[in-house]
Amino acid sequence: MSSDASDPLSNGTYVGPGDGARPLAGAPKKVLVVDDEPETAGGLAEILREDGYHVDIVHSAEDALEKFKVDTYHLLLTDLLLPGKSGVELTKLVHDAAPATAIVLITGHATVKTAVSALKRGASDYIRKPVNPKKLRERVQTLLDGRPDYLPNKLLAVGRSGVVLFEGMMARSRVMHNVFEKIKLAAQSDATVLITGESGTGKELVARAIHMRSKRAHGPFVAVHTGAIPRELIASELFGHERGSFTGAVDKKEGKFELADTGTIFLDEISTMDERTQINLLRVLESFAYMRIGGKKERQANVRVVAATNRDLMKMAEGNEFREDLYYRLNILQINLPPVRERREDVALLATEFMAQFAQHYRKPMQVVPADTQRLLEGYHWPGNVRELRNVIEQAVLLARGSSLDPELLPQMIYRAGPVEDVIRIPLGATMRDAEKEIILRTLEARKGNKKITAEVLGISRRSLYNKLAEYGLDGK
Q: Domain range holding 441?
């Protein structure tokens, strides 16, 4: 597949649930069953659902291709004889578009030769009718065990205009498309990367994407959340220690840099590091060498470093809270993740995906996010970003009793925020002053008078907003 930046799905993948950080633990593999006999299709689906797979059913090759335009499946289980396009034709089309998808053909005795020939066109296996449930389970398990969660699928470019699915992330917004391009660029070298952005925006997911697209993808990815480690233990966690090197060091211990050898180490919340650890890390970045605590042997660090922070390290350096020399060593290539309020066109998209994931996880028949719910979600300011959105949708799915994620399932805080007004009408002939005043007033009303959020939406400082409110006589609002 081409990696041309103009292709919105160049090296695109199936999206995982993501919280802004990681996919759902144990998210089920997806299977598409294709058979023109509803009873047969339903029976096959029931067998696989009992084993925990997410199964969709269609009754023709044409419908199967439409499914692949809006989703990606780990396994295609198709009858050989179908109305319209045959199972062999479907096999070739799906294999060309999604080569990592496993394909199993179901065939009668008379069509075994045709099924065998289909293996040359991309099928993984075939099963004879009548299907033995035990053998079906065994074949499917063999094919899907160890198969990656995220698979390439060229057909996704059709029917999802403007939507890019990229290494577990999903976006329609231009700002996120730019992030994806920077990830591709970062993956081409071993340069240190600094990922910045508010909490919950998905910094670890970006780090994993860089790793998976780099030449180090065969090596380990080791994530270290430095803010969760006591300061007196952080050096030991990163670089390891020798037995007896300090009180409590009853055995020698490998550090995270050793565990990440030949791969990538992700240092999250790097702003929390104490100065001594910062000095040690600086030495690693400058000489690719370090020593265990209490050790005498210098060790080489064959590791790519990706760091992340939700704070402004430059300002911290100016205030002597963070080493300036370390900041410049980390900031070889910076990727800034935008908050959700700057990518509102992605909110409904993400909400729908999260709903589908959690509906499957909790075995709920959820199918739709209504327009009213979408408007409320898009109007909320999401201080917790994608992580908060994910948690809100999980809660709503748990509370739901029907197939729709209705507005009343959302927390009260989202109702209080209210939806952003879709259109602000400015009459022809109005002055720039009148237009600015109307925009500020309507945005303030949509945000229930919350000036902090209003300033964020307008892209100005709170001080500037207060000045404008005073200028236009709106400071009593």
A: 432-471
